[in-house]
Design a protein that fits this description.
With 390 residues, this protein is an alpha/beta fold. It has a single domain, classed as TIM Barrel. The chain is 38% helix and 19% strand. The protein is built from 13 helices and 14 strands. The strands form two sheets. It has a nine-stranded mixed β-sheet. Strands 11-10-12-9-13 form a five-stranded antiparallel β-sheet.
């Protein structure tokens, strides 16, 4: 979907759907679901519509078969879809069973992560339109707890990232496909905010021409809501640091009105077994007072003036949820306003609400297609008008 005089591309990440069926059935399922989304949005069948692909290691391996690539390409061309971004963060299964911190494995100290990312890039280069800059989002180095005692961690990560940067440079030279590997900062990873990745980039990547061109950032508004920074501050930091912003992922986080036992009890409805929901207690000034690696089940004190903020990707149109729960959207709104005023910051926007299937029932729309359409409408209304829609 095009926004702001065709200067912005907006898509929805397909990681909301399981990737556990063969390619033909998966494409048919995507076509059926997004056909309904188009109907909800009142779009013509031939109007170009972007899809945010995602690939686990199994799918990336299948895409080495040219016939599978041709099947995907034919599906896109026949149905008016196009792809400018690919999510290569999850390596293995991502739905239906506990994922939690396993989503960070293998991390960027592993050659398997680099090889998988290169295969994903080959796939994206085959299906993305010409004349557009593509992006691949990936995990931020690794989960800090897993890497705390690993020897030469930074050097291994830098080595593998540089390997991928060189591969992307070769793809561009041979195929004309410009792709930016976009590191997605996330709480409790070794790069959980923009400052930490900028520092790593300065130590290990800045001197490589290929890395400067092909390694950038995926800025996730839900993740950045937890950092304690002023809304939009991280984005400004990246721009000032000269990093490429390959993609902005749009999602709301989750917060309570306070940090009391009543607030914690209200938060428990979002505690579930599949995904990790890093949680922070933030003070009156927005700074982080306490950190939890998931939604906590107990609180040793009421912290007056504080509130819980959790990494739980809520649909962007959510605002008030209950008497003590609401969507945390300050980062989301600040970033959308910056992009609206200057689309040159980043041309690639992706709505990412992979948690739809684990939302409390009261927050789900009558169908996932209707929820996706409502998110599209909310984003397009905000980017075009700058007004926060109810």
């Amino acid at each position: 979907m095009k926004l702001v005089s065709d200067k912005l591309d907006l898509c929805y990440s397909l990681n909301v759907f399981p990737c556990d069926m063969d390619i033909g059935r998966r494409l048919a399922d995507i076509g059926c679901k997004f056909g309904r989304v188009r109907e909800f949005l009142g779009m013509a069948e031939d109007e170009p519509f972007a899809l945010g692909f995602w690939s686990d290691s199994r799918l990336a391996g299948q895409m080495a078969d040219k016939s599978n690539v041709l099947m995907v390409r034919d599906f896109l061309e026949s149905n008016g879809y196009y792809v400018f971004t690919l999510n290569a963060f999850p390596y293995g299964e991502f739905h239906g069973k506990p994922v939690k911190s396993e989503v960070y494995l293998p991390d960027w100290t592993s050659a398997d992560r680099a090889d998988f990312t290169c295969r994903a890039a080959d796939f994206l280069a085959e299906i993305m339109p010409s004349g557009i800059c593509g992006s691949i989002s990936t995990l931020p180095g690794g989960y800090a707890k897993f890497l705390s005692e690993k020897k030469d961690c930074e050097k291994l990560i830098a080595w593998n990232l540089l390997k991928v940067a060189d591969h992307l440079a070769t793809l561009e030279e041979r195929r004309g496909a410009e792709i930016v590997l976009s590191v997605e900062m996330e709480p409790d990873c070794i790069w959980e905010d923009c400052k930490s990745f900028l520092e790593f980039h300065g130590r290990h990547l800045r001197n490589s021409q290929n890395a400067r061109r092909h390694i950038g950032v995926c800025y996730d508004t839900s993740h950045q809501e937890l950092t304690g920074a002023c809304p939009g501050e991280g984005l400004e930091m990246l721009i000032s640091g000269g990093l490429r912003i390959g993609k902005i992922q749009l999602s709301a986080a989750l917060e309570t009105i306070g940090a009391s036992r009543m607030d914690l009890e209200a938060l428990q409805q979002f505690s579930e077994e599949v995904y990790l929901h890093q949680t922070r207690i933030k003070g009156v000034d927005g700074g982080v007072v306490r950190r939890y690696d998931d939604i906590p089940c107990d609180l040793d004190a009421d912290l007056s003036g504080c509130r819980f903020v959790s990494h739980f990707h809520l649909p962007v149109f959510c605002s008030g949820i209950g008497r003590r729960i609401r969507a945390a959207r300050n980062e989301l709104l600040a970033v959308l306003e910056k992009v609206r005023l200057d689309p040159g910051i980043c041309s690639a926007l992706e709505i990412e609400t992979y948690t739809y299937n684990v939302l409390p029932e009261g927050l789900k729309s009558p169908s996932i297609e209707e929820s996706i359409a409502k998110e599209f409408k909310w984003v397009t209304d905000n980017v075009r008008s700058g007004a926060d829609m109810p």
